[in-house]
Amino acid sequence: MELQIGNVSAIVLAKEYATPLYVYDKQIILQKIQELKEAFPHARICYAIKANSNLSILKLIAQQGLGADCSNRIEIELAEKAGFDLKKSIFTSVNPSDADLNKALSIGILMNLDDLSIFQRLKKLGLPKRISFRINPGFGAGKFSGIVCGGKDTKFGMSEERATEAYRLAKESGIEHFGIHMMTGSCVLDELYFEEITKAIQTIAENISKKIEIQFEYIDIGGGLGIPYEPFEKSLNLKNIAERIKRIYTSSALLMLEPGRFIVAESGTLLTTVTTIKDNFIGVDAGMTALIRPALYGAYHPILLANNPEADKTEKLTIVGPICESTDCFAKDRSLPKIKEGDILAIQITGAYGFAMASQFNGQPKPAEVLISNGFHSLIRKRETTEDLIKNESN
Ligand SMILES: Cc1ncc(COP(=O)(O)O)c(C=O)c1O
After folding, report:
1. Less Cβ crowding at N or C end of the chain, within 10 Å?
2. Nearest to 149 by CA among 92, 72, 100
3. Known catalytic residue: 70?
4. Residue closest by Cα to atom 4 of ligand 1
């Protein structure tokens, strides 16, 4: 039997919409949100828009009552368009422009600043009612070094000492409502880690509270919940994590989480057609421009032969795209069934940081995106064309 995505044949989808094609299963997104809500019934969950910012997906997530985690003014605009409640959302920027800060100020979203100097700049633009600062606790975690965002070698957040000064300045400026934030890495599959970061930020919050006599209303532990990509990896047990956090969380502040990957990654599949077979190189029509994670981090994604996913894996094959870069490789020496020209491959777990990181390099209009809902499929983003590559150019 052909691979099914949300009860629809991957082959039918590939024929109808052509490839490369991103397909998302709505049911999986809803299920992941439900898991989060059940594990953290009292927390505020803000979806990290950067993971997948297709407006149909954003609307779906907003309808479930989640807030949004936005990195810049464009993501704030997307959150507004999708119908997220911006009072329940957070703006966590890195090196924001004045335009970003003005946008955040104008809509009253909780501002979470990466440095004291940004607060000083913000003061010239206006004062928000609420402020939060991002702490770098001096450690981080993450599946690849490129997605670790805590520790002295990373550009994110500030030390407890610097943050204390930032809160002092904010208090002196008249701000009365405070949050505190930490996001130290992505794709973490170690349940203990989430307890560790919660402990760390809670302690830092207590220290700052005592030193400058402020109360925190929000403690945000960021995103980072991992999902298993590789056969040997195990899913996180969210209930265990929540239980551990509950045991040590003594603060009266609202706990916030900003998951991105956890909500959307497993819903997505990238379908691609085999164009060329040369020795053990299997050339496909999707490239690193459609899905950059393998090239960028050496990330593993499961790959199935969509026309016969149960076929015996008798070969060792290297799956490569059409881009003029040797990093344009989805899998090296992977055990796969015999593959022929015209076959459809399904590159799985591509709902997060897949299309969102796509580019047009090397004459590659971005792929189309389709959402499967209750056995029906609909196009949620048209395939780009040559016109999309040049439309902003003057000629
Ligand atoms: C500030 C912030 N919050 C949340 C996330 C989401 O992380 P993840 O997709 O690992 O949950 C990110 C990802 O980079 C981030 O930078």
Report:
1. C
2. 92
3. no
4. 223
